């Protein structure tokens, strides 16, 4: 058995760095740990934390291909965030111009969840605890 401790971070490559930085900090509420411009790669790297825990590396690279989402492709499907009150968080997202899908019920847990997207159509999910 591998002696893994926990998930360290998730790396996301975005198309429009400033738009995605604004989404993850101002809409989603992530805190900036460090922001670095890597001139040799013409790339930004933004380290983001939520409630003090480092979670996301946001990268920009020139001329990135689009992510295939529909039909769903192999690989990472979505990121999911736990919430206490799904309607409240949906309203907060909607107030900031983020569209959300319909609330669904997980047939195995009877918990409610909903999907939405980041600026690059990366699927994100809210899952009510």
From TrEMBL:
Positions of the VOC domain: 6-129
Q: Which domain of life is it from?
A: Bacteria
Keywords of this entry: Metal-binding
**UniProt xrefs under Pfam families:** Glyoxalase
Which residues fall in a coiled-coil region? none
Is the Metal-binding keyword given for this protein? yes
Q: Name one GO molecular function term.
A: metal ion binding
Q: Does the keyword Cytoplasm apply?
A: no
What is the protein's name according to its record? Answer: VOC family protein
Q: Which organism is it from?
A: Flammeovirga yaeyamensis
């Amino acid at each position: 058995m591998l002696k893994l401790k926990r998930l360290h971070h998730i790396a996301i490559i975005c198309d429009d760095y400033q738009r995605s930085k604004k989404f993850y900090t101002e809409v989603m509420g992530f805190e900036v740990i460090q922001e670095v411009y890597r001139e040799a790669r013409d790339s930004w790297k933004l380290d983001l934390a939520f409630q003090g825990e480092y979670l996301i590396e946001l990268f920009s690279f020139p001329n990135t291909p689009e992510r295939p989402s529909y039909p769903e492709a192999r690989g990472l499907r979505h990121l999911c965030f736990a919430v206490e009150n799904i309607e409240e968080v949906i309203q907060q997202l909607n107030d900031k111009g983020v569209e959300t899908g319909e609330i669904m019920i997980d047939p195995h847990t009877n918990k409610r969840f909903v999907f939405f997207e980041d600026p690059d159509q990366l699927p994100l999910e809210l899952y009510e605890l």
